[in-house]
What does this fold into?
Amino acid sequence: MLIFTQHFYAYAHETDLIKNLKEDPKGPFEQIRWFCNDGTILPAKAGCSKNGGGIQHADWKPQIKSLREQGLPIATIFAALNDHDLEKIKKDQSLLPAMLVERHLVAADNGWIYQRAKFYRGALQFEDESKGAKNLLSIFLYQKDWIKNNFLLAREALRLLPIERNSTAMSEIRGLANAISDISPNFLELRNKIHSIPGLSDAMAVRNWLNRQGSAKSNKSLVEKTENLASKIEEVFGGNLESSHILDSIIWNSELKARKQTSNLIEQLVQVKTTREKLALLSELLLQVRYIAEKEDSPFIAEKLLDASIDIEGKAFQYAIANSKNHPKYSRHEALEELRYLTRAVFGTGMISQRAYFAAEAALSRLLEKNEINSTEYWKELSYLANIPV
It folds into this structure.
């Protein structure tokens, strides 16, 4: 679930501006500049070699600067966040959720205000954005009990912030995009998008681009590189259970009971065959990972656990969808058991509180333990369970 704040509603008052930004080839940006470490701002071709180094990215349009000065964190450039910015975000608890709202809009609305600007070469460099986003997340992960008190927010931050989850694979993605662009210059726009705001949808965009190339598809090297690029994008952004081996290697830092239980779940997951069995194990795994992450003192390990949790959630969702075709055949008992799996999964993602989870578990236990139950009691329990977002 996304955390909405008062900042979100401010966007509603800027509908004309948002519409114009979507249609503008440069979006919220004015021009590319160098931002040097000594505070100097130089033109795109100047460089910062004489100014202690620096980074290159776009500068904002005057309207965007004005909105940001008024407190609306729009068009955030994570690479540009300095110590003062990070301290401000740390103190104002509404700013991080507001940034996540924007990241959600970018993902859900075809780039949102970056709809055309995502092809603006040099506006954003994903490597720099990832570094800035990691610095931002770190200031929260290092706060004692922050994950325990803000579990959903922590997961959504890791999910939505432009954090590089696999640096080696991302380097391969950028290299393949460059190689394809060298072979076929009309790939340049898509190459720029992949370098600045990469995402899962790029895999389909890459394949669709290839399908439009006509005779160029006879170039075996082009076809091979394009398919490799699409597959690599799906690998990085598609969500998988490769994080299970990460889990297996890092839960050693957790208490013995939790370590043993989680390891057993991972082993069973490989052995079971049906989607129903896999869903049951994944929901329990999500629950256990939440408990472990909330107690974890190491920010590095906590981040890895949250990362794994996101991948497990994706796979659990796939099995839940695949298993839904069996619902008409379920007995009442089987349907309630599956509701229990889904309730555990929802709690494991942080969508409901521990209090709500315990209450739902109690209601399900009352229903499952009785061979016979009157309709009034049955519907009373189901009415409560209907509040769980499964």
Q: What stands out?
A: DSSP finds 19 helices and three strands in the chain. Confidence is low (pLDDT under 50) at residues 1-5. The chain has three domains: 6-160, 167-237, 243-385. The two ends are 12 Å apart (CA to CA).
